[in-house]
Design goal:
It is built from 7 helices and no strands. With 173 residues, the chain is mainly alpha-helical. 17% of the residues are buried.
Length: 173
């Protein structure tokens, strides 16, 4: 069901008021609720090219396009490098170039982390939770799901947990 604020208070077609907040106009039957698609609720993917360009041109501040908090930390780190330049320890041109390279790398890394977090198939914790919910429904499917986690994410804490869960499930048979 659409959110209360997504229901029109007046019909666009006939102009009748919708004081009862109904989904369809009582006068003409026109739908009064805007359908909210799942795609609209998902955060928009950010452009890697734009992130790299902004970070390359304006340095750590360009990382704000991807993540403001991480950009602040990066900017503070670059500030330290700037102070080293003032002391004559690092050439200013080298520091400028280094700040741009590090900024581009950090922006692209942050974007990749965001994509992984948005895609459940790339998120091992999400897959572990899904397999755990499956344990009560179908233990064999849960074991298969845990084995896929082990194959997809070897040598991680999630694969270790999946191995332990398989052992527990096999003992419970």
């Amino acid at each position: 069901m659409p959110a209360e604020n997504a229901i029109a208070s007046v019909c666009d077609y006939c102009g009748r008021k919708n004081e009862e907040r109904l989904l369809h106009c009582t006068g003409c039957g026109t739908p009064l609720a805007k359908e909210i698609l799942e795609d609209e609720l998902q955060p928009k993917k950010k452009s890697k090219i734009l992130a790299a360009l902004l970070a390359g041109i304006i340095g750590p501040l360009g990382v704000c396009y991807v993540n403001v908090e991480k950009a602040v930390y990066l900017w503070l780190g670059m500030l330290v490098v700037g102070f080293l330049c003032l002391g004559g320890h690092v050439h200013i041109g080298f520091a400028f170039l280094l700040s741009r390279i590090v900024s581009v790398g950090r922006a692209l890394t942050l974007l990749q982390e965001q994509e992984i977090a948005l895609d459940p198939k790339q998120n091992p914790q999400f897959l572990l939770d899904q397999a755990a919910r499956m344990e009560n429904v179908d233990k064999l499917k849960a074991i298969v799901a845990y084995e896929e986690i082990i194959q997809q994410f070897p040598n991680t804490k999630e694969s270790d947990e999946a191995s332990r869960n398989i052992a527990v499930l096999k003992c419970a048979k």
